[in-house]
Every structure is written in structure tokens, then in C-alpha cells.
Amino acid sequence: MTRSDTIAAISTPAGVGGIAVVRVSGTDALPCVLRHLSVATLEDRHATYCRFDDLDDVVAVYFPKGYTGEPTVEISCHGSLYVQQAMLQTLVDDGARMAEPGEFTMRAFRNGRLNLSQAEAVADLIDAVTPTQHQLAVSQLRGGYADELKALRQQLLDLTSLLELELDFSQEDVEFANRSQLIHLVGSLSLRINSLRNSFRLGNALKRGIPTAIIGRPNAGKSSLLNALLADDRAIVSPIAGTTRDTVEETFSIGGFTFRLIDTAGLHQTDDPLENLGIKRSIAAAAQADIILYVHDATRSFSDALADMQSLQDAGVSLEGKHLWIVNNKMDLPDAVNPTPGVGIAVSATQGTGLDRLRQVMVDAVSCDKAASSDILLTNARHYDALGRADAALRQVAAALTQGIPADLVAVDLRDALYHLGSITGEVVPDDILGNIFSRFCIGK
Predict the structure, then answer these.
(1) CA-CA distances (angstroms) from residue 426 to 116, 117, 189, 196, 285?
(2) Dihedral sign, Cα of residue 311, residue 314, residue 317, residue 320
(3) How far is CA 407 from CA 37, 415, 418, in A?
(4) Which range has highest mean pLDDT (18-27, 365-374, 425-434)?
(5) Of 78, 228, 240, 405, which is most buried with the most CB atoms under 10 A?
(6) How far is CA 335 from CA 301, 329, 338, in A?
(7) What's the N-to-C CA distance of the chain in angstroms?
């Protein structure tokens, strides 16, 4: 993927469509395509209607420096599978090479059109299915925090260079790097890194779906609530207690957010080993969730709910930072009582009443979280890991500077921090990591 030869691929999704786009990029992209067009040349950045051999009438556009930073031709043809494949095969037979997954974006990165975090945002933008996911991807694609980290890294690099220069004059006992300035910079960078890392939980949830655990006693209507929210019979519903013995996960989108609903086994005391395993998974789901919907059977005593809340906390589930709502279900039954007016949400999963309010409460809560968060949300797990490693190195630097450790040892940790910061935007990154990142892209992008 480091070659600069001419590559070609179908850039539109696989299958039949009204229009398909074949993309060609590389030093010989224009002559390779022109040999098959009914026109002698293509004007820069102008759409030209012409014919591609005897295959199809097409619209071709030539970019001297296209998306990849290289000469690029994009050919729009009819979406026939035969036309697409025949055109691609013709170009390959004439010297082009089939592009590998993500190779167009890889070349854009190699040619300085995008930094690495922006390149990763391209994949997120393609995968976005909600306005929020689109917004997060566009923010990162436009630079996001990468520009800020790049500037801070450059300051750190300048001071590191001065520190290492001292090593060349170690016999003369000179100090080029201002220690107080370096300590201040390390502290500022560490604070910003931790601010970004703290935003990852929300950013990742918005990107992949907010984990929402549906818990409660057996037969409280958890599976019915899941099905009602999804408007689909996804989970088995039965009056027999213990029907749900494992977690069931599905997603639904509303208000610009995706929620990852997790239906769980009922919380109760049992000697059945399989049910106990399911209950352990229910507790684990509650621990990992950002939203907990506790489904309470409104025909039963509310003391059950209070006991379960205490049991969850006794099992190590922290409710701090989570949104928890009591969902009083089965309100359509004559002996149902809403024991928590103003706090709980009264619904009937089978009749569909109260569900609109529940959905709106969930959307409002996430909207408030997003509004209260930092201006930039971290969504990439690779970046989260790299920032953690950089912060650990910076802590070592701060400790060393405070203790008066020699410059050569401080420089080792500084280089480590610089490496991890640079790996986010691509200033320094091994080829195997690049290959792993771009292999996840679709062919043609």
C-alpha cells in the first residue's frame, strides 16, 4: 500500500444501482482512462460526457490532485453489475491495479492530505447512521483535537530537543531547556489529555450506541418493554418465570441517538445454576450501562424494587454517573399502582402507553450529557489508549524533573510521550498499525 502505481476500484456500494462510480488514482490515471474514452482529453475538474469503449456512456471527471493527492479520474457509469466489472477489468488489463481496502485514503494520508486521525474519521463518517454519529465524525475529520495535540506536541518536541542538546555539552554543565517551563507544559498537556480521556465513555457510547440495561424481577415485563421500544418481537415473552436466561441486545435510534438495549435475566434468589449465571450477567450489564431501566411490576410491592437497588450496589454496581429510572409496567391492569409519581415512569409495554414519554426522557438525558461535556468528545479506542500511554510517560517526566533526575533519563520518557502523541495524528506510526487501520476500510475508499 506504499506504492504509487495506478490503482482502480468501484467506489459505490456493491450491487445494482442507478449510477456506479469507478475511481482511478496514480501517476498514470489520466492516460490509462483516456485510452478508453471517446474524447482526446479531460479538462481539469470538469464533468465530461463521453463513451467508455463500447461499454457505456459515462461522465468522467479529472482531478490533477484528487482525494489521494495524486492525479485521479472518477467515472460515473450506469449501475449494471456487468458494466461496472467490465470497466474495472478493462482498466486493470491496461495497467492499473485493483486497489486494496482503504488504499485511496491511505494515499491521502501518505501525501499529506489528511492526518491519521482524520483518515480514521472518514471510516466513521461512512458508518454514521445518526445525526450525532455524523457530527462526531465530521468534527474529527475537520481536525478536532488533533490540531491541538499536534501543536502541544510540537512545543514538547522543541523543549525535548533543547534537553537532548544538553547531553552534547554534558561536560560543561549548561542548561538549555528551562525546567520550570517544561514542568508547566507537561502539566498543561497532562490536564488536557485527561480531559479528552474522560470524554471517551460518552463519546464511545454516542458512536456505538448508549448501553441501556433493562433489569428487574422475573415477569416484570422486561422483554415486553424491549419489544415495545423496538416495535418488534425480538425477545421471547412468556408468563413462565426465568424465560430470559441470557442477555439479548438490540439497538434503536431516536432523537439523533442510538441506544443499545440489553434485556437481562430476572433478579431473584434461585438454586438453578443456569439462572444464577444469567443473573450474574444481568448485574454485569447494569454495571457497564450508562442507562438503567428498572422494570417494576406495578401490581406488586414496591419494596421489591428498593431491595433490588440495594442488591445491585451490594454486588458492586455503582449508580454514580448513571441514569436510572423506575419503569412501572403493567399499568393497564386493574390492580396496578404507580408508587413513584413524578419519579417513576408509568407504562404498559403490551398496550404501548407511556412509551413515548420514556423515549423522550432517555433522549433528554443523553442530550444533557452531551451538552455538559467538553467541546470535543473522544470516540476512538486507539486514541484513548495512546493518550493513556502518553500521560503515563508525562507523569514520569514530571516526577523526574521534580526530583532532579539527569537529562538523559528524562529525555527517554519525553521521547515515549512524543511517540504516543504522534501515533494519533500519524507523525510516527509503524506500518503494521497503518495496515490494520486501513484494512477496515471498504475497497474504493
Answers:
(1) 5, 8, 18, 18, 36
(2) positive
(3) 64, 12, 16
(4) 18-27
(5) 228
(6) 11, 12, 10
(7) 13
Phi, psi of 325 (to 5 degrees): -125, 140
Judged against a pLDDT cut of 50, whether residue 31 lies above it is answered with yes
Q: Is pLDDT larger for residue 378 or for residue 373?
A: 378
Rounded to two decimals, the pTM is: 0.78
Q: Which residue has the higher pLDDT, 270 or 140?
A: 140
Residue 129 · residue 259 · CB < 8 Å: no
Distance CA 425, CA 443 (A): 23
5 touches 47 (CB < 8 A): no
Task: Write the secondary structure of the chain as one string of H (helix), E (strand) and C (coil).
Answer: CCCCCCEEEECCCCCCEEEEEEEEECCCHHHHHHCCECCCCCCECCCEEEEECCCEEEEEEEECCCCCCCCEEEEEEEECHHHHHHHHHHHHHCCCEECCCCHHHHHHHHCCCCCHHHHHHHHHHHHCCCHHHHHHHHHHHCCHHHHHHHHHHHHHHHHHHHHHHHHHCHHHCCCCCCHHHHHHHHHHHHHHHHHHHHCHHHHHHHHHCEEEEEEECCCCCHHHHHHHHHCCCCCCCCCCCCCCCCCEEEEEEECCEEEEEEECCCCCCCCCHHHHHHHHHHHHHHHHCCEEEEEEECCCCCHHHHHHHHHHHHCCCCCCCCEEEEEEECCCCCCCCCCCCCCCEECECCCCECHHHHHHHHHHHHHHHHHHCCCCCCCCHHHHHHHHHHHHHHHHHHHHHHHCCCHHHHHHHHHHHHHHHHHHHCCCCCHHHHHHHHCCCCCCC
As a whole number of angstroms, the distance between CA 377 and CA 129 comes to 18
Contacts of 283 (CB under 8 A, 6+ apart): 312, 315, 316, 317
Pairwise CA distance, residues 117 & 115, whole Å: 6
Helices 200-208 and 179-198 cross at an angle (nearest 10°) of: 40
pLDDT bracket for residue 235 (50, 70, 90): very low
Q: Which amino acid is at 256?
A: G
* Residue of higher predicted confidence among 265 and 341: 265
Q: Are 228 and 355 in contact (CB under 8 A)?
A: yes
Do the strands 56-63 and 72-79 form a parallel or antiparallel pair, or are they unpaired?
antiparallel
